[in-house]
Amino acid sequence: EDSFDEDCDYLFKAVLIGDSAVGKSNLLSRFSKNEFRLDSKPTIGVEFAYRNIKIGDKLIKAQIWDTAGQERFRAITSSYYRGALGALLVYDITRQKTFENVKKWLKELREFGNTDMVVVLVGNKLDLGKSSREVNEEEGRSLAETEGLCFMETSALENLNVEEAFLNMITKIHEITI
Ligand code: GDP
Ligand code: MG
Questions:
Q1: Helix-strand-coil percent breakdown of the chain, rounded to 5?
Q2: From ligand 1's centre to the CA of 23, what distance in Å?
Q3: Helix axes 162-177, 24-33, angle to 10 degrees
Q4: Pocket residues for ligand 1 (CB within 6 Å)?
């Protein structure tokens, strides 16, 4: 599509995981295309997106995988995780259940993923925080600390911290890998 493939110094694969409807696909479209969809349907077809990032004098191509709705059936397979250096583990701050399930996702991640994978725990839908929050920021931060993850609250809708969450992960991968 562009000439970047030949010029890029590194290609990183990262994955999006977390319960259905927490906002994974919208976080990715916000990061890769600066788009948001209120009526977003479960992802069909396209399973990853790219974004090119410059760190220092190195060009990094981040390939971010999104589930095609398999998370509904807990049917994400090991091939999804294969080769991934990072993960954004997303929950919805307005749905406690999605936060409780973070532990299940971590278990799966540790079973199928690389041992030194960079994981960012993301509490999404921050824009709804004032009216319908069910998970405190402290709970998220504390779980992240216990599990050794980075942490961030985001809003794909209002474009809050989305760039930061992805770049946090990509920068850490870069530090570890190079
Ligand atoms: P996925 O199943 O995890 O990929 O979730 P989607 O990205 O498809 O989003 C599920 C629903 O949540 C859709 O109706 C989105 O419009 C909505 N949504 C996603 N992110 C946000 C957000 O940051 N704030 C709000 N208010 N809604 C969001
Ligand atoms: Mg989706």
A1: 40, 25, 35
A2: 4
A3: 80
A4: 20-26, 37-38, 40, 42, 124-125, 127-128, 155-157
Question: 11 C-alpha to center of ligand 2: Å?
Answer: 23
> Which tokens in the block code for residue 43?
């992802």
pLDDT tens, residue by residue, 146-164 = 999 999 999 999 999 999 9
Helix (H, G, I), strand (E, B) or coil at 1: coil
Q: What is the ipTM of this complex?
A: 0.99
Q: Which two tokens stand for residue 53?
A: 């990032």
Q: Token match 């402290």: residue?
A: 138
Residues 104-145 have pLDDT tens digits of: 999 999 999 998 999 999 999 999 999 999 999 999 999 999
